[in-house]
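Narrative of accomplishments. A recurring question from our advisory board has been how the design workflow behaves on a single, concrete structure rather than in aggregate. To address it, we present the structure tokens for one chain from the evaluation set, followed by the sequence designed for it. No filtering or post-editing was applied between the two.
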């Protein structure tokens, strides 16, 4: 994750960077040159806070189609000299994904760019994955020699080839190449790589590097601490906690409590998480103390351990901690948002407002608080939910805000639900398809468009058809 440079939410660029439905609507109403400039800036400089979970590619591809945008700037970006130096997926991943969707819409120029980049580009594996979904067999077979030329005929080169083939996200090209009788040399090489990859995976399973049966509690805690001392740092709290669950007995409880009280950072974090998951009587007291520890790692681990608790005692303690204006207080309100009752609405709303005021509309704890506002149907939370919806740069959090507004704001169907039909997130479009008021003529046209779009997700189309089917629809 990283913090991209996001424009103000009221600007065309800011709307498009956030993936809001209003971004598309404003772009279509703006001068074409201005809209294309903003679109290209988004496609070439990924604006997502977390590019691995947030969707933008279909959103940008659809807008590119509607604006009849060319691919010259995309081509310059992909084949810029920087591509040889900066091979990180974040630089070109979104661009290649947009090209993939354009190719699925029948844009041959996008398909040709993907083929060219797969042959010569730095992030060629991503381009090959896009082609695996959209190109025909002959197009993929034509790439075999160009891709295999990247791997020298040496022991190291063959090992790299085996690793690449084994880890390929889409296996279709590799299987085609392995069965291609027109290129017997390449086929034999790919078959050997696939076999070596499978053998290497089996060997790794036989030679685990983590804890083994017979390890003691002390050895597990030491292993967790060793991960913290490595470079790059490995946070092993989760696997170490599972190992403790397997090896710890009643006689080990004093040692674990001692580690949770004053052990090294990683050992303390592991012990706190273990005690929380075991609902140990000492867990809440130790978590409260650790949350105020000078070590940020220990404090965060304590808060994380509390958030994972499911006992009635943790829920009762959350009600006494929810007034705190620190991380533990936010975690307590978050737990109430997930598991509390209607009488917990006040602290949830109070914390929601405080976090937005002090930490802004992208604070991680807002996810649970926003969900809780919807689950508890806190009607007076609608103004702050609307603020989060407009301002957050996370399309996932915006979708959660839309879902909470659907439960709390009577104006949602005729308001935000309409623009959500153009949102970048499929779950948000699905929500809008079920709620958007059809008095707006744009809604009817958009529902029909989504129903006919082969690139739309099945869940969205199911929701759309529930509105336009003559037997069940409200249209």
């Amino acid at each position: 994750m990283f913090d991209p440079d996001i424009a103000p939410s009221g600007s065309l660029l800011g709307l498009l960077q956030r993936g809001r439905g209003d971004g598309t609507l404003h772009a279509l109403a703006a001068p074409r040159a201005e809209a294309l400039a903003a679109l290209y800036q988004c496609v070439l400089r990924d604006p997502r806070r977390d590019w691995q979970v947030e969707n933008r590619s279909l959103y940008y591809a659809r807008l590119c189609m509607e604006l009849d945008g060319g691919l010259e700037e995309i081509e310059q970006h992909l084949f810029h000299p920087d591509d040889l130096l900066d091979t990180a997926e974040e630089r070109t991943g979104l661009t290649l994904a947009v090209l993939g969707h354009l190719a699925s819409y029948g844009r041959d120029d996008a398909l040709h760019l993907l083929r060219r980049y797969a042959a010569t580009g730095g992030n060629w594996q991503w381009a090959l994955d896009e082609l695996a979904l959209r190109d025909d067999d002959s197009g993929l077979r034509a790439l075999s020699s160009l891709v295999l030329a990247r791997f020298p005929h040496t022991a190291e080169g063959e090992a790299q080839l085996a690793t690449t083939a084994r880890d390929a996200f889409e296996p279709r090209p590799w299987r085609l190449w392995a069965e291609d009788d027109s290129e017997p040399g390449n086929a034999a090489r790919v078959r050997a790589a696939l076999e070596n990859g499978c053998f290497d995976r089996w060997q790794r399973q036989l030679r685990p590097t983590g804890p083994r049966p017979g390890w003691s509690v002390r050895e597990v805690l030491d292993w967790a601490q060793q991960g913290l001392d490595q470079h790059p740092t490995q946070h092993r709290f989760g696997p170490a906690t599972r190992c403790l669950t397997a090896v710890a007995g009643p006689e080990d409880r004093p040692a674990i409590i001692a580690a949770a009280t004053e052990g090294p950072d990683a050992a303390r974090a592991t012990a706190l998480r273990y005690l929380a998951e075991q609902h140990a009587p000492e867990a809440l007291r130790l978590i409260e103390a650790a949350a105020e520890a000078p070590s940020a790692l220990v404090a965060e681990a304590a808060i994380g351990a509390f958030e994972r608790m499911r006992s009635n005692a943790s829920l009762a303690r959350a009600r006494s901690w929810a007034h705190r204006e620190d991380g533990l207080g936010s975690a307590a309100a978050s737990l109430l948002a997930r598991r509390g009752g209607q009488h917990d609405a006040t602290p949830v709303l109070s914390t929601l407002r405080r976090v937005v005021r002090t930490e802004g509309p992208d604070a991680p704890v807002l996810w649970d608080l926003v969900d809780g506002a919807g689950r508890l149907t806190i009607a007076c939370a609608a103004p702050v939910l609307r603020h989060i919806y407009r301002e957050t740069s996370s399309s996932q959090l915006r979708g959660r805000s839309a879902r909470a507004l659907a439960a709390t704001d009577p104006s949602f169907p005729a308001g935000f639900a309409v623009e959500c039909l153009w949102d970048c997130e499929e779950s948000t479009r699905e929500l809008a398809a079920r709620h958007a008021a059809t008095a707006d003529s744009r809604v009817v046209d958009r529902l029909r468009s989504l129903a006919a779009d082969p690139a739309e997700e099945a869940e969205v189309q199911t929701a759309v058809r529930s509105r336009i089917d003559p037997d069940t629809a409200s249209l």
